[in-house]
Every structure is written in structure tokens, then in C-alpha cells.
């Protein structure tokens, strides 16, 4: 059972962080670097406890826990500490301004916004709590982290270890559910970084608006896949499967559904389905339901939700379909022969489900994608540059990824985030740091240019006008 933070402690925590910020404790670069390295140490020294917590909450195989959450956090904490002095260095603008302003020392300072709140979801509960925290630390902002109560073991581990490694006057974990988060949202924060679904995002945005608090919203949506029928089906199927198997499809960038044009290649869908079936069999020769190499669905409610999408679908299950309510496991399940109004093509399925719809052409796939909300990612399997460019130029999404899935998360230098219903704001390393900083500008106007400035004072004579 997860210990929730007492409601009346929440305003006191907030007040404590405000005091720390006003004392400027969190501002020194050396102090921030130390906290970042402490966070790396926390992960390194307790990696087993975190891997176990992920396994208890999600049945997460150790290899996935390290590859997707633990190792990237250590790497990003260390790299943030290393590159922070460069990020935070004042940006001098002498070279960009006109000649007559060069002596004014025009400068941009990246300055901490203040006391910030991070609200995380359950699906990647560790990295999605701590990655925003890394940015807050780097930016010099004291922070509260509110992990998801739906992943209680990870939430408990964060509450246990963060106070042992980070400065308690600057960083706090608040655990709880709606009541606790509602209390947090009554308070004035200087930035809120929320990761989760679009419905709750609207509650967060409404609460933030009362205080004019800026937001980062990392949301989800249906990330579609377009398969060019001329691509290598075996490799494409394997790579789509990779995006679906991680955390049993409970991943914001998981491929949600597939469009495959078949007017010129009538057997393209059949070939893809066969290749996908083969790839699944290779991953779990003993079957996925009893395999330790496959996560379970987070809880009964989500299990029922995904199962009911399958039950209501008018399509045909062509791969997988079996599930085990006791272990909350569901095989990777592909549904074919569906229309746009099928249950499997409505909300984000956020599970091990992958519908495949035949369309006539690439243009039709693009039309269907544009008729929906802008996705977080659009996946395109095609080596044809004309096809790649056509799809990129005629659609919108947070990212467009050619010829693989999910691997884009490994490119730390690219900003990650959505557009429209998939959210706004960007993260990872420098971009998270930027989210918690504001650009404070400065000029220092020398007295020596007073003669040049005389024109601005009345009386506005012709002589001054001609200067
Ligand atoms: P969730 O249910 O854990 O909710 C997220 C957070 O919101 C939790 O901390 C929870 O306590 C809080 N919350 C819940 N109800 C609330 C309320 N009424 N008022 C205030 N706070 C409340 O997680 P979820 O939303 O189910 O997460 C899955 C969604 O997140 C999916 O849509 C997924 O695509 C998206 N997601 C996006 C990203 C990204 O980086 N873009 C990453 C992971 C997940």
C-alpha cells in the first residue's frame, strides 16, 4: 500500500520550496551539478530496487527496465551535469545587434522560473518522473514530483530514495491520487510539467490558468504507421513489433494502428500480416502469456478497457488474441479488415493491440491521418524519398520517423514533444532545462553615449530630427 502525503502537509512543502528559492540556494551551478550527480548515484546504487519496482507494477522485464528507464536516466543526469555550464552561460548578442548598440552589452540570461511541479503517469513511471526533475534541477528550480499512484511500487521507491540523495529543502515527492493532486494544483507554481492523457491535461491547464502558470503538456494519441507496399515486409514487421512489445504497447510513442495501400499491391496486407506473425513467434516461441519477457497490462481496469476494444471490433483477429486475466497479460494482437469507425480505430488503444487497415493509396492514408488529431509520432516505412517527403509535407505530428519505431527516443539531442492534442512544449536534456528557464534580457547603456541620445528628449527640434 502506497503512503499518501497528508493533504495539510502539501502547502507546507510548497512554502518550504519557495523559501529555498528565495534564499537562492538552488542557483549556483556547482550546487545544481552536485544534485544532478546525486540523482545519477541514486539510480546507480539502487538500480535493483527500481527494476524490481517496475517489475511489480508492470511485469517489466529487467532488460526493458534498464534500457528504457534506468540507464537513460543515469546517462542523462551525468550528461546534464557536464553540459550545464554551457547551457547556462549568458548569451552575448554584440555580434547580432546594429553598430550603435554594440557597447550596451546586450545579453540573454537563462534564469530559473521558480518553484515547479512535475506530474507523472504510470506507464514509464520512473523516467517520466525523473527526467523532468533533471531539467528542473539543471534550471535551478526547486520542485515537487508527483508520481502516478497507478504504479505504486515505483512511487514508493521514489519517496524512499529521493530524500536520501537530493536536498530535502529543494526537492520533494508528494504521493497520492486525485485529492492530493487537486491540492497541489490549488497552489501557485512557476511551471507545471504534466505527462499523461488529454482529459486530465485540461484539468491541469484550467488550474494553471488561474495563476498564469506556464505548462509543458506531454500527451498521447494515436501514432499511426504507413507501410509503403514496396518496402521489405519482414524488416518492417519486426520493427513495428518492437514498438508494440515495449511495455506491452503501454507507451506514448507505440505504433497505434497501420495503414497499408493495396490498390497496386493487392497482397501487401497479407504479406505484412504473415511477416508480423512470424516475428511474434520468434520473440516468444513459448507464447507471450507465460513469458517473463513481456510486460502485463498495468491493472484490471486497463485490461478490461483493451479487451473491450478487441471484443467490440468488427475486424478479424489475425495475430494473437489470447489473454490471461489473472496475470493481466494479453498477447500482441493484430486486427485486420477494419473500417475507420471500428472500435480499434477510436481512442488511443495504449496496449498490445495493433489494427491494420487497407487503403487504396498513400494519399488516402494521409487523408485519414489528417482527419484525426495530430499524433505524437508518425511512422513511415518506405525507402522512397518522394514518398517520405510527400508524407512529411502533407501531415503534422510531434515527430516523423522513417523505417523504425521507438528508437527515436535514443536520440537525446532531438526535442521530444507533441503538437495539438499530443501536447505542447519540449523535453530531454537541454530542452527540459529550457522548459524550466525563462529568457531574462539585459542591456547596460553607457553614459558616454549621452550625446547620441540627446535627440530623444524634447524639445523635438529639426536639428535633432536630422541627427
Ligand atoms: P495517470 O492515470 O497515471 O495520470 C497521470 C497523472 O495525473 C497521475 O500522476 C495522476 O495522479 C494525475 N491525475 C489523475 N487524475 C487526476 C485529476 N482528476 N486531477 C489531477 N491529476 C490527476 O496516467 P495516464 O494519463 O493514464 O497516462 C497515460 C497517458 O499518458 C497516455 O495517453 C499516454 O500516451 C500519455 N503519455 C504521454 C507521454 C509523452 O511523453 N508524451 C509519455 C507517457 C504517457
From TrEMBL:
The active site is at residues 218, 252. GO terms for cellular component: cytoplasm. InterPro entries: Ald_DH/histidinol_DH, Ald_DH_C, Ald_DH_CS_GLU, Ald_DH_N, Aldehyde_DH_dom, Aldehyde_DH_NAD(P). Residues 20-441 form the Aldehyde dehydrogenase domain. Gene3D superfamilies: Aldehyde Dehydrogenase, Chain A, domain 1, Aldehyde Dehydrogenase, Chain A, domain 2. Keywords: NAD, Oxidoreductase. It holds the Pfam family Aldedh. GO terms for molecular function: aldehyde dehydrogenase (NAD+) activity. GO terms for biological process: aldehyde metabolic process. Belongs to the aldehyde dehydrogenase family. This is Aldehyde dehydrogenase.
Amino acid at each position: 500500500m502506497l503512503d499518501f502525503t497528508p493533504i495539510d502537509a502539501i502547502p507546507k512543502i510548497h512554502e518550504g520550496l519557495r523559501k529555498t528559492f528565495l534564499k537562492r540556494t538552488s542557483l549556483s551551478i556547482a550546487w545544481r551539478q552536485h544534485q544532478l550527480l546525486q540523482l545519477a548515484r541514486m539510480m546507480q546504487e539502487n538500480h535493483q530496487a527500481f527494476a524490481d519496482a517496475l517489475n511489480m507494477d508492470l511485469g517489466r522485464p529487467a532488460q526493458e527496465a534498464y534500457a528504457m528507464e534506468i540507464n537513460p536516466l543515469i546517462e542523462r543526469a551525468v550528461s546534464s551535469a557536464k553540459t550545464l555550464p554551457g547551457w547556462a552561460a549568458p548569451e552575448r548578442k554584440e555580434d547580432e545587434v546594429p553598430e550603435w548598440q554594440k557597447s550596451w552589452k546586450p545579453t540573454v540570461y537563462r534564469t530559473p522560473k521558480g518553484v515547479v511541479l512535475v506530474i507523472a503517469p504510470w506507464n514509464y513511471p520512473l523516467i517520466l518522473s525523473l527526467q523532468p526533475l533533471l531539467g528542473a534541477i539543471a534550471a535551478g528550480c526547486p520542485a515537487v514530483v508527483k508520481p502516478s499512484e497507478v504504479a505504486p511500487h515505483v512511487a514508493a521507491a521514489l519517496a524512499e530514495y529521493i530524500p536520501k540523495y537530493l536536498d530535502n529543502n529543494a526537492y520533494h515527492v508528494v504521493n497520492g491520487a486525485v485529492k492530493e493532486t487537486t491540492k497541489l494544483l490549488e497552489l501557485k507554481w512557476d511551471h507545471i510539467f504534466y505527462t499523461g492523457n488529454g482529459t486530465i491535461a485540461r484539468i491541469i491547464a484550467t488550474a494553471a490558468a488561474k495563476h498564469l502558470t506556464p505548462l509543458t503538456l506531454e500527451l498521447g494519441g494515436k501514432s499511426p504507421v504507413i507501410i509503403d507496399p514496396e518496402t521489405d515486409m519482414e524488416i518492417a514487421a519486426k520493427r513495428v513489433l518492437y514498438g508494440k512489445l515495449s511495455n506491452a504497447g503501454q507507451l506514448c510513442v507505440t505504433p497505434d494502428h497501420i495503414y497499408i495501400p493495396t490498390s497496386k499491391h493487392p497482397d501487401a496486407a497479407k504479406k505484412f500480416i504473415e511477416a508480423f506473425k512470424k516475428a511474434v513467434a520468434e520473440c516468444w516461441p513459448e507464447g507471450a502469456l507465460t513469458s517473463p519477457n513481456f510486460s502485463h497490462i498495468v491493472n484490471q481496469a486497463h485490461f478490461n478497457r483493451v479487451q473491450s476494444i478487441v471484443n467490440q471490433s468488427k475486424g478479424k483477429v489475425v495475430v494473437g488474441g489470447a489473454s490471461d486475466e489473472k496475470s493481466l497479460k494479453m498477447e500482441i494482437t493484430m486486427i485486420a479488415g477494419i473500417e475507420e469507425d471500428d472500435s480499434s480505430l477510436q481512442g488511443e488503444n495504449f496496449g498490445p493491440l495493433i489494427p491494420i487497415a487497407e487503403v487504396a493509396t498513400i494519399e488516402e492514408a494521409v487523408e485519414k491521418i489528417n482527419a484525426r488529431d495530430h499524433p505524437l509520432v508518425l511512422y513511415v516505412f518506405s525507402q522512397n524519398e518522394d514518398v517520405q517527403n510527400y508524407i512529411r509535407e502533407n501531415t503534422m505530428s510531434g515527430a516523423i520517423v522513417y523505417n523504425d519505431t521507438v528508437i527515436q527516443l535514443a536520440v537525446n539531442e532531438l526535442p521530444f514533444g507533441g503538437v495539438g492534442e499530443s501536447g505542447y512544449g519540449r523535453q530531454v536534456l537541454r530542452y527540459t532545462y529550457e522548459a524550466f528557464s525563462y529568457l531574462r534580457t539585459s542591456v547596460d547603456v553607457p553614459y558616454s553615449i549621452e550625446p547620441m541620445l540627446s535627440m530623444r528628449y524634447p524639445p523635438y527640434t529639426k536639428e535633432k530630427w536630422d541627427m
